[in-house]
From TrEMBL:
Residues 259-291 are annotated as: Disordered. One of its GO terms (biological process) is signal transduction. It comes from Baryphthengus martii. Signal peptide: none annotated. This is Suppressor of fused homolog. Its main location: cytoplasm. Residues 3-179 form the Suppressor of fused-like domain. Belongs to the SUFU family. It is found in: Cytoplasm; Nucleus. Residues 276-287 have a biased composition (Basic and acidic residues). The gene is Sufu.
Amino acid sequence: LGGPDPLDYVSMYRNLGNPALNVPEHWHYVSFGLSDLYGDNRVHEFTGTDGPSGFGFELTFRLKRETGESAPPTWPAELMQGLARYVFQSENTFCSGDHVSWHSPLDNSESRIQHMLLTEDPQMQPVQTPFGVVTFLQIVGVCTEELHAAQQWNGQGILELLRTVPVAGGPWLITDMRRGETIFEIDPHLQQERVDKGIETDGSNLSGVSAKCAWDDLSRPPEDDEDSRSICIGTQPRRLSGKDTEQIRETLRRGLEINSKPVLPPINSQRQNGLNHDRAPSRKDSLESESSAAIIPHELIRTRQLESIHLKFNQESGALIPLCLRGRLLHGRHFTYKSITGDTAITFVSTGVEGAFATEEHPYAAHGPWLQILLTEEFVERMLEDLEDLNSPEEFKLPKEYSWPEKKLKVSILPDAVFDNPLH
């Protein structure tokens, strides 16, 4: 009806659990509105019954029922609206194994449960609707230490550990906001025997994050119209083409398939143009549309080799650089920062990644506002030494700058306000 909230409604059920499976009684919340409820193109573009309905998923949440509670608390509905608002505004979808760093107790109490992991709902299978397929992703509340473990290793691994600890979720991953201990405090062996070993063996399967980030091309004079500064933080940023946006999203979605060589989707010069170039690309834009076969002029899609670059991150994004280097690049993988405030993207790639447009000869390359940086294993090891203090954010004073002059690379960690109001 055009109201301010993205979700049409949230259903709340009293679930009796399953004592035989050690599943306690809880409240079960289900969102409506991320999928297409109407099929009339008012909210979501209807693309047929075979593809995803709307964004292709709805959110669910299971909250442990406290003794004496006769009605479900309503704060989970607000939480779902917040997540849905992010999805509608950014058009980034969620997948099982994803994490959301929230940095605040989910119910605004004093709880240690301050972040979220996402997984398939244990009771609700994907459904075929008249407007497409809908899957159900369950929100699982976690502590900060559990979120960090999911980032350093992988979300699915931590979810499996949570399932084995009844008070931390159990088989149906029910969130208990009164849980006062992390799974690593409950069972100290989990950190060393499962997580640390998993990080060492597998690396991280976190292939990218939405972040506050930007980049400058230092090899161009500021007055140059093509200067990447106008792309990253100017008043009218040039947008990524629909194809590039899809490639970045696909990179983030897929992460790394086990036992396969990591591949970045290739840049294709045959892009659809039509009306899509100068507006936010619709999540439903056909990437190979025959009705819009015009090709964007060559100068708009060419890949530029850059001599010298300056990367900018806020503190939370910067703290993930060691993970990007140690958990991804040293394992022959890639890692992408996708800006939440614009179309800027920064992808780090190792020499083992195929399909990248950055090469060892030209390690810095840009395609519009998408920057790729190829780092050799030797340079990664050196960067890890130089960036060691990023692992101790409590000792940090912003702004902080790191520089490798012979590599013509500079990294700055800046306050959030720089990204919230980039023209200052």
